[in-house]
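Q: Predict the assembly, please.
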Amino acid sequence: MPPRSNEIEVRARGIAARELLRGGWSESFACLKVPRGLRWSTYKERHFAMKVSDRNYFALKKLHSLTGVVPIGLFLLEHFFTNSKALQGETAFNNAAAELARIPYVGLVEAAGIWAPIAFHMVLGVLIATTSQANLGKHGYAKNWQYTLQRVSGIVLVFYILFHTWMTRFDANYLSSPSAYAFVADQLKSPGIFAFYVVGILSACWHLGNGLFGFAIHWGLVTSRGAQRNASRLAMAAFIVLSLVGINSLLAFTGRGIYPDLLTKPHGAEHGPVVYQGGQH
Amino acid sequence: MPRQKIELRIRRQDSPTGSSRWEEFSIPWQPSMNVISCLMEIRKNPVTKQGQKTTPVHWESSCLEEVCGACTMLVNGKPRQSCTALVDNMPDGPITLEPLTKFPVVRDLQVDRKPMFEALKIVKAWVPIDGTYDLGPGPKMSAADAELNYAFSRCMTCGCCMEVCPQYNSHSDFIGPAPLAQVRLFNAHPTGRMNAHERLDAIMGRGGIVDCGNAQNCVEACPKEIPLTEAFGDLGRQTTVHWLQSLFGK
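A: Predicted assembly structure:
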């Protein structure tokens, strides 16, 4: 069989590493178990079917890590900010949503800043998850739990984001609804959808929070054991705070959100609740 | 109270491609036994607990003082050196012995750890000083650096970290924790540093540092307490800087 083009490229670049790696690897794993009914050669062909050059692979992995924080992580913060407007009532939320729709070049911002990065992060993330051989049962260390949950939450998020985007962005009933708040509040009356939203929000908060820990090591922001421990603690704190904010904004749509006075009175508290005037939509 | 008899459950496999089976053994207790002396006891009289004649159990060992890594196997499900697995320190009940699962089995408890040695070649885990003339003495290393580097130099390629790593398996390209940690070691060496970019290039491809998933099982399993996860943070930094320099220029 003639070598694939990328193999020629690798040789041309004088990198014998891949060759060595592939030789040593497949040979040494040849007698390990492969999925039932699948020959090793078939398995190998299938797995190595998609090829990119080594340096592009590195760049793609870097981009995967980066997109998780910027812009996807930033978007989640913005999303929770807008959702939390629901704590101030229907009008406040609907106005905030309408305000977002008036962002200049909104279509471009949405496609390039949210959809494209999420789609990229999602596809590569699922591919990364398939390279794992989870062993939590045998080695139940705390970090192994974090590692496994990172992958599980990622897979949950694929389904959640598809459902959530469909329901609150493309569904005809949503688009024709006079009040975004009322539509979501109505949907959340179904216990199944409410539970799925809770799972989705917790997954998103975990994936970003714990992802920050991975990001810090991946980019070499923390190296020593103490620095990594601190990064892990900060990541867990981020998960908890994000979860509380996220779940509270969800409860706001059911009229059960907690809105302590303390948080409403940075200044001008004597004026009472904020009254929204504008917002034609 | 010491046990009277030692019960062992051993996963046996006659050939690299053969299927595996369990065999049980019961041997008399003696003071200060380790797993290897148990295996030697079985070898004297290879009869199973059920009284069936069998072949002696095959294993690999060399130094018997936890510095060569050859006798690494799964003892009660955990990867460790069988020479320092002392029977008297183990909980009651049968002792389970299995070969490492991430390396091909040669026979019984012996595995071929060749993938690790190949990986060390890939990452160029050495300091190239061969030449046609005397290069003279190399640069000095501070005592503090030497101490940290010593921690990484204790690696005996036993494979415990590879065994517990969820990213190191038959459907992933990842070369595993042990070889990567050696890049950290040799890139910190005053003379080895001169070829740092070559090692970084080698680990910036498929199966390299970006395939680490931060499960951090490796550092828990390492019998030599090598700060493997510190190495990966450091290599993350080195490869990031190296990558940005290649994109934008130094």
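The CA atoms of residues 112 and 195 of chain B lie 30 Å apart. Chain B touches chain A through 53 residues (CB under 8 Å).
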